[in-house]
Design brief:
This protein has eleven helices and 13 strands. The protein is α/β, with parallel strands linked by helices. It binds nicotinamide-adenine-dinucleotide.
């Protein structure tokens, strides 16, 4: 019976995957691998690996000539050395589109929590202060401009669900052609131009060498006083020291962060308990339905590759073919 390694997972149970692989006549080896050596030992004799966080590196691939495909449970794939996979002819697949609505809604929720002061009001009330001015003045949302950085799947959805709330939606995405901008989104030519106009900035880029640390002191310096930043993309896109500095000077009115450069947040971080920071635990993707879709799509890649030689969601193409 063909066999895959389920290298690691943090789910309460894996009935979903067992049922899916069972239907396709695939045997599942379940492990909780943290190291390259653990993956190598566990994946012996497997044609594929379903991976959450375990490392898939040059050394792992070199030791496992029978592995033809690696499928990541998630949209990102930074624990997989895709260049090594290409060199070894191993297909890389992922599950990229399971939670677009969830992430966009979460980003809007963080933006609204900041602009409507929800978390601070809650704290004030708990401290015995019931008054609509307890945390200062609020501005009319209909006078605000939302600036989206990265107008891909999630950024576009964010624009769509936010357009009735704010006066303008503008976006910066140097990789899209004009035709890919929805008519109700105004294109701005640079990050700097976006910073100068937006009242709320929402980040939706991937983490790349170019976007790492892109939201830095220079970016914050260009903002209008009292603007807000929301990050549901990847933590390392934002320079957290620069963000804290901008909060201190009042340039930044508040930050809503679902992702951080190091997760979970450390107990001594200044972000914790900061009156103008709202955090969530990298949960923007989450709904019961999105999690099921995420896991089903990642597992299905392996079954589809076994029957057709190609997964549904290709990250990088391989040359290895299933043994029949
Ligand atoms: P996508 O690939 O559809 O869109 C990303 C967009 O960013 C693209 O249009 C691209 O052109 C643009 N971009 C790339 N580099 C840029 C730059 N330097 N400046 C401006 N724009 C740039 O991706 P997506 O599915 O919309 O996901 C967006 C982000 O959301 C990713 O970082 C992803 O990891 C993250 N995400 C987070 C969660 C969560 O739970 N918080 C869940 C899913 C995805």
């Amino acid at each position: 019976m063909p066999r895959i390694l389920y290298s690691d997972n943090d789910y309460p149970d894996i009935e979903l995957e067992r049922e899916l692989f069972g239907r396709h006549g695939i045997d599942v080896i379940v492990a909780q691998c943290r190291t390259e050596d653990e993956v190598i030992a566990a994946a012996e004799g497997c044609f594929g690996i379903l991976v959450q966080y375990a490392p898939v590196t040059e050394r792992v691939l070199a030791a496992l000539p029978e592995v033809g495909i690696v499928s990541r449970i998630g949209a990102g794939y930074d624990t997989i050395d895709t260049e090594a996979c290409v060199r070894h002819g191993v297909w890389v697949a992922n599950s990229p589109d399971y939670g677009v609505g969830e992430v966009a809604t979460h980003a809007l929720a963080l933006g609204l929590a900041l602009t409507r002061n929800i978390v601070a009001y809650h704290r004030d009330i708990a401290a015995g202060n019931w008054h609509y001015l307890s945390s200062g003045k609020l501005r009319r949302p209909r006078d605000m401009t939302l600036g989206i950085v990265g107008l891909g799947r999630i950024g576009k959805r964010m624009a769509q669900i936010s357009r009735d709330t704010f006066r303008r939606v503008i976006a910066y995405d140097p990789y899209l052609i004009d035709g890919d901008f929805p008519v109700f989104v105004e294109r701005v030519p640079s990050l700097d131009a976006l910073a100068r106009v937006a009242d709320i900035v929402s980040l939706h880029t991937p983490l790349t060498p170019e976007t790492r640390g892109m939201i830095d002191a220079r970016f914050f310096a260009a903002l209008q006083r009292g603007s807000f930043v929301v990050n549901t993309a990847r933590g390392a896109v934002v320079d957290i020291d620069a963000l804290l500095g901008a909060l201190d000077t009042g340039i930044l009115g508040g930050a809503g962060l679902d992702v951080l450069p190091v997760e979970p947040v450390s107990r001594d971080s200044r972000l914790l308990g900061h009156p103008r920071v709202v955090l969530s635990p990298h949960s923007a993707f989450y709904s019961v339905e999105a999690e099921r879709e995420l896991r089903r799509k990642a597992a299905q890649n392996l079954a589809t590759w076994l029957s057709s030689g190609r997964p549904e969601y290709v990250v990088t193409r391989g040359t290895r073919v299933p043994r029949r």
